[in-house]
């Protein structure tokens, strides 16, 4: 049985995106994303994919779209639903990561065994917001606390949350 993981970075006010992009450029946070997801399938919606339009290396990349003729770059696997994406991913690895966007975080949350949640120390006025998931019955641990610096405008905290 595969383990379903969600991974996202949110602002203090739960914003995760603006104009189809991440609201920040935080290389140190991206390093955490890379480290946690490396070697595992990553499942994303078509808009999240279009933010970077490339393959995240070292991971099976699955993009969900309803467009039957959607043209993605070589190396991207397409799925027509989250269920189809899970089926594809399960063949590859025990750990599966849902990496966005809003609809897929919401839909996958009931199946999630772990959530890697980064809280960015900022309030952002964007157009994509993650739901306020209830983690009160989950076990949480802090993986990292990062201060702002010249390359990372905001500080952040990375939490690993496991269903209790
Ligand atoms: N901060 C973070 O951690 C984080 C993570 C991920 C994304 N983001 C941000 O979130 C924003 C993008 O996310 P989003 O929520 O707008 O879009 P999204 O979930 O990435 O993609 C939406 C697309 O997924 C497809 N889709 C949605 N529901 C479907 C279903 N039931 N069956 C099949 N396909 C379905 C549709 O593609 P088609 O229209 O092609 O059919 C839809 O347009 C960006 O700003 C991105 O930077 C932030």
Automatic annotation (TrEMBL):
Keywords from the UniProt entry: NADP, One-carbon metabolism, Oxidoreductase
Domain of life from the UniProt record: Bacteria
Catalytic function, reaction form: (6S)-5,6,7,8-tetrahydrofolate + NADP(+) = 7,8-dihydrofolate + NADPH + H(+)
Pfam family, one: DHFR_1
InterPro entries hit by this protein: DHFR, DHFR-like_dom_sf, DHFR_CS, DHFR_dom
Ranges of residues in domain DHFR: 3-163
E.C. code: 1.5.1.3
Gene3D superfamilies from the UniProt entry: Dihydrofolate Reductase, subunit A
Keyword Oxidoreductase (UniProt): yes
Pathway it works in: Cofactor biosynthesis; tetrahydrofolate biosynthesis; 5,6,7,8-tetrahydrofolate from 7,8-dihydrofolate: step 1/1
The keyword NADP is annotated on this UniProt entry: yes
PANTHER family for this protein: DIHYDROFOLATE REDUCTASE (PTHR48069:SF3)
Family the UniProt entry places it in: Belongs to the dihydrofolate reductase family.
Function: Key enzyme in folate metabolism. Catalyzes an essential reaction for de novo glycine and purine synthesis, and for DNA precursor synthesis.
Protein name: Dihydrofolate reductase
